[in-house]
Amino acid sequence: MRLAFNLTTCEGDADFLADEQEKKRQLEGYDGLELQVIDDPAEGLVDPALVTGLHMSCVPCWYALWTGDGQALLDEFGTFEEAEAYYGGPLTRDTLLDKFRRDLHWADRFGAEYLVFHIAESRVIESFTEDYLRTDEEICEACADMLNILFEGKTDGPLLLLENLWQPGMNLKRPEITRDMLASVNYPNKGIMLDTGHLMNTDTSLRSQDEAVRYIHSVLDAHEAAGFDLCESARGIHLNASVSGEYAEKVKAAPPRLHGTYRERTGDMFWHVFQRDQHRPFTAPGVKELIARIAPDYLTTELISTGPDDRREKNSQQLAALK
C-alpha cells in the first residue's frame, strides 16, 4: 500500500517543496503526494518522483453545459457571459473536456500512478438545500460519456479512480449504481477512490467518528450483499472524517437566501462546503481495521490545513491512527 497526502499547487501551498529540510519534515512517514494542479507549478518545484497520484479538476456544476441545456445555464448563472467566465471559455463540451485534458497532461508529465475523478454534480443552491434536480443515474451516465471521450483509444496508463461524493452521482448509497458506474467506463485500468469523509456526509444522523466507522462497514456489507465487492474495487482511499450531520440538517431546514454575482454566491457555497465536508483526521478506534478490510493499493490522507505546521500535525495524527 502506497501512502500519500494531498497537496495543491495553489499559491503558497506547495512552497515547502523548495526547502529540502522542510520537504523531508512534511513527508515523514509518507511515500509521496497526491497532487492537484490548479496553478501551473514553478519549473522544478515538484519532483515527479514524489507524485504518486493526480487529482483531476473539481467542477461542481457541469451537467447543463455537458447536455447543452441553455435554460439551465441561465437559471444557474444568470447570463451566458457569467457562465463563460466560470468555465473559462465557450459554452461547449470541449471547454469542460479541456480542463481534464490539462490534468492528463500533468499526470503524464509527473508520471502519476493514478488519477482521481469526481462522480457528482451540484448547483450552488443545492449545496445548501440538498434538494437536487438531477438523479444518480443521469450524473453517472454523463460522467461515463465524458470519461469515455477522454480515454478513447487508451488501453493502458494511470489507474483511473472514480471518487464518491454525497451529491447525485456515485455516492455509494445504492450498490447497483456503484457497480454500473464502474462498468460503464471503457478504460480498463480503473477502480474506485473511496472517500471516507464524503461517505460520512451521506448519513446526516452520524454524530461521532465511532458511528462513522460502523456506518462505512455497513455500506461495504450492503455492496457485498448485492453481489458487488466494493473492497476489491476500492483500489484507493481518501482517508478523512466529516461528522457534520447536525450542521447539514440545520442548513437544509433553513437555507440562506443567496445574493450577489455568481462568483460571490460560489464563494458562499465553498465556505459552506468546508463546514459540511470537514476533512479532519479520522482517528476513531477501528480505523486501522477498516483500512485492513478494504486493503487499498493507495491510501491518501486528504485533510484541510492552514499551513505547513498544521498540515504536518494533522497528517501525523492520521498516521498515528493507522499504527
How is this structure best described in words?
Strands 1-2-3-4-5-6-7-8 form an eight-stranded parallel beta barrel. The longest helix has 18 residues, at 93-110. The protein contains 15 helices and eight strands. It has a single domain (2-320), classed as Divalent-metal-dependent TIM barrel enzymes (TIM Barrel, Alpha-Beta Barrel), CATH 3.20.20.150. It has 323 residues and is α/β, with parallel strands linked by helices. Helix content is 46%, strand content 13%. The mean pLDDT is 97. Strand 5 (159-163), helix 8 and strand 6 form a beta-alpha-beta unit.
Show the helix and strand layout:
Blueprint: E1 2-8, H1 20-26, E2 32-36, E3 51-55, H2 63-67, H3 70-77, H4 80-87, H5 93-110, E4 114-118, H6 124-129, H7 136-150, E5 159-163, H8 175-184, E6 190-195, H9 196-200, H10 209-225, H11 230-233, E7 236-239, H12 245-253, H13 262-276, H14 287-294, E8 298-301, H15 308-320
Parallel strand pairs: 1-2, 1-8, 2-3, 3-4, 4-5, 5-6, 6-7, 7-8
